[in-house]
Write a structure and sequence with these properties.
By secondary structure, this protein is α/β, with parallel strands linked by helices. It has three domains: 6-189, no CATH class; 210-410, Rossmann fold; 416-484, no CATH class. Helix content is 46%, strand content 7%. It has 18 helices and nine strands. The protein has helices at residues 34-48, 67-77, 87-101, 108-131, 134-154, 164-172, 210-214, 229-239, 244-259, 280-291, 307-310, 323-331, 356-364, 366-369, 400-403, 419-434, 446-459, 462-484; strands spanning 6-7, 84-85, 270-273, 295-299, 337-341, 372-374, 379-381, 387-392, 407-410. The strands form three sheets. The chain has a five-stranded parallel β-sheet with strand order 4-5-8-3-9, with helices on both faces. A two-stranded parallel sheet has the order 1-2. Strand 6 and strand 7 form a beta hairpin. It is globular.
């Protein structure tokens, strides 16, 4: 086959494009839905039917659902992928399909394909760098990043102890290259099949409730945020303009997690500081809904020690695990949204039963959250993936060490001009709590809406506005029922 470059790309209007010099294929960093995998495979099969591919690439025609055939193709094309315009993209796409679908040879076969492609890309990128071909060099660098992302996220190691260069030489017949130092790839970047929240433990007693906690000692999948989570948070920012700053921070965290291939982000704990009734609890619930994550709430206002967070030690008749562990077991999720209200009012003393603030600090500090010791279960718990949102009326009674670990956002009451969007959001919350659609609620007369808007301009308190709206909706419902009879 001559060393020519063949243009084998799909229709430029297709959403399955692998990107170009102007539009990086950022979708390849994200988890694919099953329908997207099918569409990607259909586009790839159109490429594979081209007569331009040499017959030695792939031992037989590849059909839909043929994981082994796709990997045979990728392994054969990887050493010469640079001869084809978009050839590296084809190898990545073929391997990505198999990895997403979990085919029988997804482990060792996909690893070999990606390793071979990376080795070739490095050599070609060096040559392009010397030639000064900046646009093509950028494509090679981007392709190498995508290939490495696929390798780290989807493909486990071979487990046979052989070095990377030895596997490359044996499987793809390419020249061995020095293996990277073990410290150059963080262990944390290699995904596990699931997250084990608890290490193994012996139940404190024979109560049946401990069976729910045993599930946390087995790998649990992280709840993945929806692909349109950033758009959902943007819509929430329009409905609640006072929360635009924390929402913007969360969107940046989502973008970084997507870029790094994380199915669910690790967000810095948020602290919302504002007067009562500004909507802090409402906001936390809406964030959980936008991210499709389960939600749990705890009010620390009446806490006199740390037992509400830390639980009680083994030996007590009513021994209970730590609150985050209990909620993760109840929700069957290792990464729920955990909301703590009125944290500035949490009491307790170190010399007595402990301070809730000290316990909370240990739970959110990355160095200790990964192995937080539960005194009831007498085992370590991994709390790093919880999304913490906290609320306070002010920060004066929050210790400085805890405050420094939080991303603090001061929330002002919404402006009077935001009544329409605020009222619509509150109406949706009322309908949700009643288990119906907003359109099922009675329509408020224009004069009632005007009165509510005028009242809101005076107090700008969301809790008060919701109570007023519920009262007005009740009056409207009574009038509608009376009219029917």
């Amino acid at each position: 086959m001559p060393d020519a470059v063949f243009d084998l790309r799909v229709d430029p209007a297709s959403p399955l494009l692998f990107g170009d010099a102007e539009a990086p294929p950022l979708w390849l960093w994200l988890t694919l839905e099953r329908e997207e995998v099918d569409r990607l495979e259909a586009a790839l099969l159109d490429h594979l039917r081209s007569p331009l591919f040499p017959p030695r690439i792939g031992e037989r025609p590849v059909r839909a659902g043929d994981d082994i055939g796709l990997l045979d193709f990728a392994a054969g094309l990887a050493p010469i992928a640079g001869r084809f315009l978009g050839g590296q993209d084809l190898v990545i796409a073929a391997t990505r399909i198999v990895a997403e679908r979990g085919g029988p040879r997804a482990g060792e076969g996909a690893l070999a394909c990606i390793e071979g492609l990376l080795a070739r890309q490095h050599a070609e990128a060096r040559a392009l760098g010397e030639a000064g071909a900046a646009p093509r060099l950028r494509r090679f660098v981007l392709g190498a990043r995508l290939a490495a992302d696929l390798w780290l996220r989807f493909v486990p190691g071979s487990g046979d102890g052989r070095r990377v260069d030895a596997r490359l030489s044996g499987m793809l017949k390419i020249e061995a290259t020095p293996a990277p130092a073990a410290s150059s790839i963080p262990v944390e970047a290699v995904p596990e099949p699931g997250l084990r929240v608890l290490e193994s433990f012996d139940p404190p007693n024979d109560r049946a409730e401990w069976e729910a906690y045993r599930a946390l000692a087995t790998p649990l999948p992280l709840r993945r945020v929806p692909r349109d989570a950033a758009a959902r948070l943007g819509a929430l920012a329009e409905a609640a303009p006072g929360f635009a700053a924390p929402l913007a921070e969360m969107r940046r965290g989502l973008a970084l997690a997507a870029h790094a291939g994380r199915p669910s982000p690790r967000l810095r704990p948020l602290l919302l500081v504002g007067p009562p009734g500004v909507g802090k609890t409402w906001f936390a619930r809406r964030v959980a809904q936008a991210l499709d994550l389960p939600f749990a709430a705890l009010n620390l206002g009446g806490a006199t020690d740390n037992r509400c967070l830390q639980g009680t030690a083994r030996g007590w008749s009513a021994a209970t695990p730590a609150w985050p562990v209990a909620e993760m077991a109840r929700l069957a999720a290792p990464n729920p949204v955990l909301f703590l209200d009125e944290i500035e009012k949490a009491g307790g003393q170190r010399e007595a039963n402990g301070r809730a603030h000290d316990t909370l600090l240990a739970m959110i500090e990355p160095a200790s959250a990964g192995a937080w010791f539960d005194e009831c279960l007498r085992t370590n718990a991994d709390l790093r993936h919880a999304v913490w949102i906290m609320a306070a009326n002010d920060t004066r009674d929050i210790p400085a060490p805890l405050l420094s670990r939080l991303s603090v956002h001061r929330i002002q009451p919404p402006p009077a001009g935001a009544y329409v969007s605020v009222a619509a959001a509150l109406l949706g919350g009322i309908a949700e709590d009643m288990g119906c659609a907003a359109t099922d609620l009675p329509t408020l007369p224009p004069e009632t809406e005007t009165a509510l808007a005028r009242s809101f301009a005076g107090h700008r308190n969301l809790r008060r506005l919701r109570a007023q709206m519920e009262e007005c909706l009740g009056v409207a419902a009574e009038a509608a029922l009376a009219a029917r009879h």
